[in-house]
Amino acid sequence: xxxxxxxxxxxxxxxxxxxxxxxxxxxxxxxxxxxxxxxxxxxxxxxxxxxxxxxxxxxxxxxxxxxxxxxxxxxxxxxxxxxxxxxxxxxxxxxxxxxxxxxxxxxxxxxxxxxxxxxxxxxxxxxxxxxxxxxxxxxxxxxxxxxxxxxxxxxxxxxxxxxxxxxxxxxxxxxxxxxxxxxxxxxxxxxxxxxxxxxxxxxxxxxxxxxxxxxxxxxxxxxxxxxxxxxxxxxxxxxxxxxxxxx
Length: 247
Ligand code: IPE
Ligand code: IPE
Ligand code: MG
Fold this sequence. Notes:
By secondary structure, this protein is of the alpha/beta class. It has helices at 28-34, 39-60, 79-102, 118-131, 146-162, 173-178, 225-236; strands at 20-24, 64-71, 105-110, 136-144, 190-193, 212-215. It has one domain: Undecaprenyl pyrophosphate synthetase (3-Layer(aba) Sandwich), CATH 3.40.1180.
């Protein structure tokens, strides 16, 4: 019970809880600017939000959480911001290693990991291996974009056709989905974007087909338990029809 609020596990009935939440963590730069601080201070504050969020998701019983941390387009930012973000990501992984192991969370990185600095790739791989048997999952999009994920899937399918293991007429939606980064993970039920921007910015383009989208004006470093509750409540009130009709 926080501020007279029910615990996160009781905010919505279990059948109204999203199984998979995906978040476009936006607004770090604006948060820093408002405080008269460098953009990197915003990213640091944003990484604290991620630590807190892991607790909210655990308390609420969310099975899958995907975080968009760095897009393929984010490489075009000033070199010092990119370098600062890469350092911060490495620091985040190392700092949270014990916590993820203790809380039994499986870490997976989706995206063009080959673009990342090698020490960061090594840290990621180690933690992925250490946690691969856990059920609850944290996916992090690093050098990720939906288009590059789909292009990669097309490339992999073409290789299978070339090798004679796949017939072109066998390429259907399931075949494409099977060649995405995390084919076994269900599509996100809820996509949250902070900082008020009403766009998807190349996030999970294939998987978002029927995701509910929730945009909050809250900037990512300010995203707190109340903001998380509000998102769960908004999702629970949605009427998901998947193109059908209610009878
Ligand atoms: C999100 O915050 C973090 C990343 C994209 C890495 P921004 O850095 O995009 O913050 P704003 O949008 O400039 O406020
Ligand atoms: C989306 O935020 C990418 C991440 C949160 C990692 P951006 O700030 O890069 O997106 P735009 O430029 O506002 O579309
Ligand atoms: Mg932004």
